[in-house]
Specification:
Number of helices: 16
Number of strands: 7
CATH architecture of the domain at 14-294: 3-Layer(aba) Sandwich
Mean pLDDT: 88
Pfam family, one: Methyltransf_23
Distance between the termini: 172 Å
Strand content: 5-15%
Oligomer: single chain
Largest sheet: 7 strands, mixed
Length: 446
């Protein structure tokens, strides 16, 4: 049973697939074992408690039983039954009083043989004693087997050593006969859990007791089949076994000692003293220490997968951290740049404030100057008129200057003419002849 199985009800555990898996194996085992039992005790009426699909009941009918009844939960599908539907009685095996339930179905409430194989481990520990009482109330001969501790199976919640059940049967006046296991221990036709656990309990004061008297057994009953041992070693790993370490050994010693001493009362079981019905709240308690399985390989694989994911996550985080560091450095550089810009802007702001103050003064001055703009405009108009007058005077002056220039040109022309006449005179012969005379006149002032 895994932890997931504990979350499901009986209808989920004991489904069609469950009975399909065990029907053929159970029928083959029953057809092998029952002829040997019937050699000692040829039962004509048989009741099978926890019959499943009726494999053992069918084999009993094949070996001469004329009246039969199979009892199990209503989760058994009628379509899977190996016996007639009229031979099947649905009932709650976990509730005491099976005798009354059976009596309500058949006129004869007792049978020559009661079969109960690999059933008791599916019922709560508190049901153990009353369940044996119900079985002994149905027949003087009970063919019984139940899973031993750490055997493992679907829906197991009360795995106990054979001595545990044998003590409960002894309390009801039944002795144990262990003659079937040796015969079928190595049989390939009998499944190992039957070969390991199957016992016969007979009421000591019954008429049929003498048929088994030579086969009675008060010796050790606990056995572990090699197949069970290998399965436990190879496939079954119990995660909560440590909680029962030491206690299991003490309980086993107490049970075997009680059985060997001839007592009929159960010793105090330390493993059961710490029990729980809730796996979620108390997983390290009985029966979970015995029945819950896990897989180290699956856990290792899961851990490796988790580790791989963690490594990938760490790698991603490291990359993210590197990116964050780079971003932080860039942010710090940007922060320093922004601080420098802020300082520069602060300085500029101071300058702007000073400029603004200066501008404000200038504006105020300009506002004052604008207040005399009317006077300035009048002065401007006056200056404009004066400029116009000056311009007119300039025009007149320019006109006079042009006239004088013309006059000057005329004088120059006249001068040039005179100069030319003068030059011609000087070049003339008369001028040259009279030159000495003129010199004398200059000398004497004439």
């Amino acid at each position: 049973m895994t932890s997931d199985d504990l979350k499901n009800g009986s209808s989920d555990l004991y489904n069609t697939a469950f009975y399909e898996d065990q029907a053929t194996e159970s029928l083959m085992s029953a057809r092998t074992v029952l002829p040997e039992l019937f050699r000692y005790h040829p039962a004509e009426s048989v009741v099978d408690i926890g019959c499943g699909v009726g494999s053992w009941l069918r084999a009993a009918m094949e070996n001469g039983a004329t009246r039969g009844l199979g009892v199990d939960g209503d989760y058994v599908s009628p379509e899977q039954l190996l016996v007639g539907r009229d031979l099947f009685l649905p009932a709650d095996l976990s509730a005491p009083g099976l005798g009354s339930v059976v009596a309500g179905r058949t006129a004869e409430a007792r049978f020559d043989l009661a079969i109960c194989l690999e059933v008791a481990e599916h019922l709560p520990f508190a049901r153990s004693e009353s369940f044996v009482e119900d079985l002994t109330g149905l027949s003087d001969v009970v063919l019984f087997s139940a899973a031993v501790p750490y055997q493992y199976g679907t829906g197991h919640i009360n795995e106990q050593w054979p001595e545990f059940w044998a003590l409960l049967f002894r309390r009801q006046g039944y002795l144990c006969f262990d003659f079937l296991r040796d015969r079928f221990w190595s049989s390939s036709d009998v499944k190992w859990w039957y070969a390991q656990n199957i016992l016969v309990f007979v009421r000591e004061d019954s008429e049929v007791f003498s048929r088994f008297s030579e086969e009675t057994s008060d010796g050790p009953l606990a056995r572990i089949h090699p197949s069970a041992w290998l399965a436990s070693i190879l496939y079954h790993w119990r995660p909560h076994r440590a909680a029962a370490a030491g206690l299991e050994e003490q309980d086993f010693d107490a049970l075997t000692a009680a059985w060997a001493s001839g007592r009929s009362d159960l010793p105090a079981l330390k493993t059961v003293a710490h029990s729980s019905d809730d796996y979620e709240t108390d997983p390290a308690a009985f029966p979970f220490t015995r029945t819950v399985l896990d897989s180290p390989e699956t856990r290792i694989s899961g851990t490796e997968n988790t580790l791989t994911v963690a490594k990938e996550t760490i790698g991603s985080l490291e990359n993210a951290l590197s990116e964050a560091r780079r971003t932080t450095q860039e942010s710090r550089a940007r922060e320093e740049s922004i601080k420098a810009e802020c300082a520069e802007k602060t300085s500029e702001n101071g300058l702007l404030s000073a400029a603004n103050a200066s501008l404000h003064v200038q504006v105020q001055r300009y506002i004052g100057e604008l207040s005399v703009i009317g006077e300035l405009r009048r002065e401007l108009d006056q200056k404009t008129r004066e400029c116009r007058e000056i311009s007119a005077a300039n025009v007149e002056l320019e006109s006079g200057m042009k006239r004088r220039a013309r006059e000057e040109m005329a004088v120059r022309d006249e001068f040039e003419k005179l100069s030319e006449g003068y030059n011609q005179i000087r070049k003339s012969t008369s001028w040259r002849v009279t030159f000495p005379l003129r010199v004398v006149r200059r000398l004497f002032g004439r």
